[in-house]
Every structure is written in C-alpha cells, then in structure tokens.
Amino acid sequence: MALQGQYLVLMGIVLIFLGLLLIFIGSFIGFREGSGKVEGGGVILIGPIPIIFGTSSKAAVLAAALAVVIMILAIIFYMVQRSGLS
Q1: What digits encode the pLDDT tens for the residues 54-73?
Q2: pLDDT tens, 8-53?
Q3: pTM recorded for the entire structure
Q4: 11-34 burial string, b = 16+ CB within 10 Å, else e?
Q5: Domain residue spans in the chain?
Q6: CA 12, CA 18: separation in Å to the nearest integer?
C-alpha cells in the first residue's frame, strides 16, 4: 500500500509541530533548571563537499553524524521508491 501525497503532507505538518513542541518543552525545562549552556551545530552540503560547523567540537560531530544518518535514510527511501516496493 503506497502512501498518497495527502498523507505525506499531513505527516510533514505533524512532524513540524512535534519539533516545535519539543523545542518549547526543552527551553522550558532548561529555564526552570537554570542551566544556561546551549550548544548548536549544522552541516551544509554543497555538492559532495560538507561544511560542518558548531559551537563546540561535540556539537559539530553530532551534527555530522546526524547528517550521515539522514543521508543514509534518504538513499534507502529512494531505493525503496524506485524499486516499486512501496
């Protein structure tokens, strides 16, 4: 059974709201506990060249690892869709 476009759009909207909810809860918990340490990082892909940045080496490594996982999932989803198993 293939997912139709309307269900994919609905899943995308739900994931966006879930992410916003998690950000709100995390900031509220951090505010209550008084922990003011914030770290962040990201990965920009320009063709095959990754640009990895972060406020600390730990954040940069975590961002790179998450980027690799997302790329692997994208390849898997592409292969499943292309093979017609969905």
Answers
A1: 999 898 999 899 889 988 98
A2: 788 889 999 999 999 888 888 777 767 667 788 888 888 778 888 9
A3: 0.58
A4: eeeeeeeeeeeeeeeeeeeeeeee
A5: 1-36, 39-86
A6: 10
Closest CA to 19 of 11, 8, 30, 31: 11
Q: How far apart are the first and last CA of the chain?
A: 6
> What is the DSSP code string of 20-85?
HHHHHHHHHHHHHHT------EEEEEETTEEEEEESSHHHHHHHHHHHHHHHHHHHHHHHHHHHT-
d(CA 11, CA 6): 9
Closest CA to 62 of 32, 39, 78: 39
